[in-house]
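#structure-requests
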Amino acid sequence: HRFQVPKIKRYAGAAFANRRAISFFFFTNHATIPLASINATSGLSFMNGVTAILLAAGLSKRFGAANKLLEKIDGEAMVRRVAVAVCASKAMRIVVVLGHEADLIADALSGLALETVLNSDFGDGQISSVRVGVRAVGDDATGFMMCLGDQPLLTSADYDALIDAFSEQPD
């Protein structure tokens, strides 16, 4: 499958394209749950249908010999710091895509409320991890947000702002 980028519409500081955002990667799932049924059956808001996909499979080639996701920031592995922020966000589910040094990354994430999936083709680049993450989401999500494991300065409020902007998009 070829990843195509449709025309982009700017909204709330994120790039959106027909409810599919790039750059910060917000997408709707092809099989979505109707908003009315979510609210009528469970009282959940639209934003609770968003799954966060955290990409943590890369080789960190530009960083040198060490895996940058395991580098410590204030005593915490970078990838864990990112995962904690994503877990504290409004995302209903968090899926982490592992690849390079998967066991070490999984250890750094232990104890957090998230799922992991393995990208055995992580050497093929980031798009291979995107594909694995999207496949893991399935049909139950209203949309998904790609999060990058090497962005430790983003907070749960940053992720929530993206989820809120996504939820305000017209159907």
